[in-house]
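Running this now, will post back.
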Amino acid sequence: MQELQDLLKQYWGYEEFRPLQAEAMASVMQGRDSVVVLPTGGGKSLCFQLPAIALPGMAVVVSPLISLMKDQVDQLTECGIAAACINSAMTQDERVRVNRDVREGRLHLLYVSPERMVQPSFIAYLHDVQLSFIVVDEAHCISQWGHDFRPEYRELSRLRDAFPHAHMHTYTATATAHVRDDIARELRLHEPEILVGSFDRPNLTYRVRQRQGRQRDVRAIIDRHPREAGIIYCIRRSDVDSLCTELTMAGYRALPYHAGLEDSERKANQEAFIRDEADIIVATVAFGMGIDKPNVRYVIHAGMPKSIEHYQQESGRAGRDGLEAECCLLFSGGDYGIWKYIIQQSEEGVAEIGLQKLNEMYRYCTGVSCRHRTLLAYFGETYTKDRCGACDFCLDEVDVAEDSNEVAAAIFQCVAELGSMAGPSYTALVLCGSTEQRVLSKGHNNLASYGALAERGQMAVRSWIEQLAAQGYMEKIGEYHILQLTPRARAGDAAPRLAKPVRRTPAAKKKAVAGDSWEGVDEGLFEALRKLRQSKARERGVPAYVIFGDKSLRDMARRRPTKTKEFMEVHGVGRTKCTKFGDFFLKAIREYCTEHGLEMSPQEEQDEPETPARQLSARRPSREEMQERAGELFAEGRSIEAVSSILQRRPTTVESYLERYIVQQDLADPSPWVDAAVHERVREATAHTNDTRLKRLYDLLDGEVEYWKLRISLACLRNEAAG
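Update: finished.
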């Protein structure tokens, strides 16, 4: 495992494995089939990506969505790892390039869809490749008991016959014991290692509220997270459209996402959210699986999900970077009816499973206990803490009514007196002593239970009715949800627990579950680094988190490194990223610290090795002086390697000197640093696209022109156009 530990630091910049990662990787290295269940944000992708680098050959990863494939390939590429995907959105030239890399054995990982993986022609194609192992990601999709069953995943059962000697490894973030058994059986895994990590996400704060005013409730949550990324889930497309419009008109940067939008608009909105060009995505459950954005700081369900599996996965989109995040569920009794109707339209077996899961979800919404404990219990895990300190109950935002038995007795009496002819809303009217004509005309103001809970408020009474139904004391029958008492209520030994909301503002987000994640962090420096990250991401045409995650930026703003060696000690900084981005971030840190009088390490040039000449120098030259000296050498036609040697600077630093020199001298000819033929290729590429981002040009040129040469050529072309 030491080899894997070294590779982890080299490519990802991490010092240690997360829980269960080492065991999952050991299964891959030992060639044993496996079923690995880790929560969203638990690092399951690393479990197969790291062994794929260490083992000879190429691993094939089956992934359900193009966006998910592309995101993972982008992240691997930025870390310096050879990876690619094949999908229907690629151009012919892109496919030819990937095919060439596969044939020549250059790739460690290849991502494909389940449909492509089982095509006879693709299977034959892979038989000519040195295959290290096969990965089935989002493996719960193969099971009808899974929350996102996909028929095309069932076809993967052919893989055992197609590759009888290949080891197979399956990964999912949500799988009950039934689903895990389905995965192993359908794929015919050989005595698989079953590894199930904890489903607990201690960095997430869970809150559940009965919905009172959708827009008001949602905005109150958003306003706790200014300028931070969030996802809002709605049940219906119409809810998505109306809520998104309301938020946009109120000044929030929100975009919609659902299956009713044109593919191009849906894709553009998703990309805008991933690239931090929008703060909020308002979506149906169609949005989520392809999203690997780690810095989502809150997830709001503006309606109840249809299962705990769905809720666990969707709320799990928050805080994937391990930092604090908030998950709020706003529900009403009507949500249950909507889902029940939809589920009942399914085929018989599927409908029964769906209704069972819906009832579990409803019980979660109306239950009175620690949210973390309830979620873990559903997945068969015991929660050992007395209080989680990260949910509405354990933060004392919700109390249990001391007179729960008396309240329940009044509700039971009213339901009995109404003779099973009223739903929750009407029952609440009677209990609260309503003087509406429909109550008076039926004589229900003469019932013994009339007005019994008048002082409690109609909203509270309505909530208690839902809680009693969820706890099994009452049933809602038929289209109009007519209430009927169950034997449990009639037994007379009922001991319900009814929650009452506490009018208390939730704790500030940085105090509830943040722990020490902000300890020692200069927030101004963090914001400066975040802007720099966004700039670099736009240059390269990738999401900002692909450059560095929030956790890395916070660590930089805490450590305030000014030298390369120190920068390499920052969480998430590997060798490749240090080479690509180190100069820029170190410069930003030094400038910010100098401007704000912050303490930092000695002001040594991070890219200058100690040499006798440096040790003897009385005063080290400034960056401006080094730029001037570099310009003199470039004027003599010196190469980057030569200037690097003379000035004792790294080549990446000298490349930045050269780019600045070309701009200052208004040069239109990049020779002798960039070959004329290469420059012409860059010129032709820019002539065929309005998008001159480096990553876009790099891809157009099949990755055959290095980034620094692209920057030099572009600088010359801009000078030429300006002249």
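The chain has 35 helices and 17 strands. More later if anyone needs it.
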